[in-house]
Write a structure and sequence with these properties.
40% helix, 3 helices, alpha+beta, single chain
């Protein structure tokens, strides 16, 4: 799972327009730099992607293209924190469930 966070955790993607552009950019990058996309979520201040990147592509190249693309498309100069986090899941299905449930707060 790859996680990337907005600069200062600013909630840019509360805007439907910006969130939609973040999604569309993901698919544009995938068409240019092919990778397997199993699931994703765009949250107000960060994004999670469950991807598999075939050789010779690199996660860093995909994330660079994605972050630059979203930044350009929505016109915010300092949109992202400079790094991203990679977690290689032992159980991908659990990670996919986490991604899909991440936007919801479960209260019992």
């Amino acid at each position: 799972m790859v996680t990337t966070v907005t600069r200062d955790r600013t909630r840019f993607f509360e805007s439907d327009v910006y969130a939609r552009e973040a999604i569309e950019c993901l698919y544009r990058v995938q068409s240019i730099r092919p990778f397997f996309l199993y699931g994703f979520v765009i949250l107000p201040d960060h994004c999670h992607f469950l991807i598999r990147v075939p050789s010779p592509e690199k996660v860093s190249s995909i994330m660079k293209s994605y972050k630059e693309g979203v930044t350009y498309a929505i016109g915010i100069g300092k949109l992202w924190q400079p790094r991203f986090h990679i977690l290689i899941p032992e159980k991908p299905w659990n990670t996919l469930r986490y991604i899909h449930q991440n936007p919801f707060k479960i209260t019992w």
